[in-house]
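Submission checklist for the structure archive. All mandatory fields must be present; incomplete records are returned to the submitter.

[x] Identifier: DUF4439 domain-containing protein
[x] Organism: Microbispora corallina
[x] Residue count: 188
[x] Sequence attached
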Amino acid sequence: MTEAATGTATGGATPSPSGSPGVPAAAAPATAALARALSAEHAAVYAYGVIGGKTSGGLRGRATSAFDAHRARRDQLRTLIAGRGGTPSEAGPAYRLPFEVRTAADAVRLAVLVEERLTTAYLELAADPDPALRRIAALAAQECATRAYGWQPVVAAFPGMPGRDASASPPATTSPATAQAPSQSPGQ
């Protein structure tokens, strides 16, 4: 089994650091970043299958929409890798989830984690010198951050940036939480 939603799925082939045979050396870093984003998308598609199975109603509709969006991104990344002479990895047969998903609240927490980790995967691709890849990466990261917010309306200063501990986030709920201001003691 491989890790879900980490961008490090090992179920498929990834280009070597020097690139795939027949791929120009200048294309190798972009192809490697595309391969890491593809691995993350493979894991996201798997995770959203689990999320959909643990939700119902509007949450399941949101999970289905996210599943479809990640399949479309996965297919786009596969096409980009192949177009650059690389060989896109295949999805692993199964992925180890970061925690057991028993309830709808667990499914929401997993969805947030998936989207945050995908945002991180697209940040690397956004640094590529190719403006077309930067645009794709920026749009994908924006979509992931928007979906994460839709699942759990908490705004990170820099979504997807390393150093943010996703496990330190407030517990996910199946409905938006209302924030309450802390009470002040007299004299403050």
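[x] Structure attached
Curator remark: The mean pLDDT is 78. Residues 172 and 181 are 19 Å apart (CA to CA).
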